[in-house]
Amino acid sequence: MTAESDPWAAHARRTVGGPRPLLTEALELLGRPRRRVALDLGCGAGNDTLALLERGWTVTALDGSAGALALVQERAGVHRTRLTPLEAGFHQVPRRRYTLVYASLSLPFTPPARWDRTWRAVRRAVGVRGWFAATLFGPRDGWAGEPDMSFITAQALRERLDGFEPVVLREWEGEIRLAAGGLHPSHTLTVIARRLSR
Predict the structure, then answer these.
(1) For the chain, which residues make up each domain, given as ranges?
(2) Domain 7-132+147-161 in CATH: superfamily?
(3) What is the pLDDT of residues 27-65, one digit of tens each?
(4) Which InterPro entries does UniProt cross-reference here (predicted)?
(5) Which among 29, 10, 186 is positioned nearest to 102, based on CA atoms?
């Protein structure tokens, strides 16, 4: 598959690096859970997947790009036995429960028509007393209005977290530099929440 037909694979190659601050923050809050099973939604280059694997987690890395998943498998090396690559859309989350469901900057790329279905699938994947960590885009983000992307207000996010205890719920606005180059006006909502009930 060429870069033109799989732009996310090219993006993954451009963004190889270390884990995002969101994962570091989430893992500090989790401590050392006895069951370390994670779902990385939109794993991209696998930066966060690899950080989890190196800490002894078993990880399902889900992405819509076969090229990105191939890169993750290549980078996983000796940790491959605890990695399950899954080429799928976010609404196709496996029907199992995870200690951590992690989605850094990926869920906003869900088309609005699939948003509700995707959110239900993601909620269902978080085990009782499990954790959900994500960065979502707010309505003042520079991409707001893109027809194939989803945006959420802080109030709507709080309402969708019923049954969860939000430990971190942070809103931020400012400019960021994109991996492809250029500055982008960003509006993000960061959440780290623990599931309390079924």
Answers:
(1) 7-132+147-161
(2) Vaccinia Virus protein VP39 (3.40.50.150)
(3) 999 998 999 999 999 999 999 999 999 999 999 999 999
(4) Methyltransf_25, SAM-dependent_MTases_sf
(5) 29
